[in-house]
């Protein structure tokens, strides 16, 4: 779970503020919130004094990025039961299902090739942008949100989410799974085009920066969710 050390330097009545991200496992001697040590002060020779406090960082949004059949949808549901506060789970599959059926078979919407490829048209992109802004608005209104997505554009997809979620504290999670495993899962699902899972297994992670990575090749969704929950502020 992340914490922030806020350091304030007072020099002749002028206050300069610096904030540093900190992880408790890397700084075991840092007092945690609620431990009865809200402020620490020490002299700063010739300039004044430094006052430091420790505050918890609140995670507003968890973004799970994984290819088809990687297990991110199952993981998205698990933290809802394990985290103390209520979280909303939303996913790109919900967006697709909410669109008119005609948009799932048109050049302007979203299309699927016989080998598992996905093509995105301008109408789909416009609705997707509005959906992303809507997710961000829910988080800004106080809801804590888990997003289940597949970054088909790699780093570009993440940048679009970063723009929508600007100002919010986001936990970026990679959900990885071996190609052979996702291919087997895909065969057992009637709602997936064969070849989609393998084509997305690595593509969705290209150039993406994460805070944490979990793997579902040998690990159940609940165990992955517990790992994620331990990093939520």
Describe the structure.
- The protein has 233 residues and is an alpha/beta fold.
- The protein folds into two domains: 3-56, no CATH class; 61-229, Rossmann fold.
- It is 31% helix and 28% strand.
- It contains seven helices and eleven strands.
- The chain has helices at 72-82, 92-98, 122-140, 155-164, 179-187, 196-203, 221-229; strands at residues 3-11, 14-22, 40-44, 48-56, 61-65, 87-91, 110-112, 118-120, 144-149, 170-176, 212-215.
- Strands 6-9-5-10-11 form a five-stranded parallel beta sheet, with helices on both faces. Strands 2-1-4-3 form a four-stranded antiparallel beta sheet, with no helix packed on it. The chain has a two-stranded antiparallel ribbon with strand order 7-8.
- α1 crosses α7 (221-229) and α5 (179-187) runs antiparallel to α6 (196-203).
- The longest helix is centred in the middle third of the chain and has 19 residues, at 122-140.
- The radius of gyration is 21 Å and the shape is globular.
- The model is unreliable at 1-55 (pLDDT under 50).
Summarize this, please?
With 233 residues, this protein is an alpha/beta fold. The protein folds into 2 domains: 3-56, no CATH class; 61-229, 3-Layer(aba) Sandwich (Rossmann fold), CATH 3.40.50. It has helices at residues 72-82, 92-98, 122-140, 155-164, 179-187, 196-203, 221-229; strands at 3-11, 14-22, 40-44, 48-56, 61-65, 87-91, 110-112, 118-120, 144-149, 170-176, 212-215.
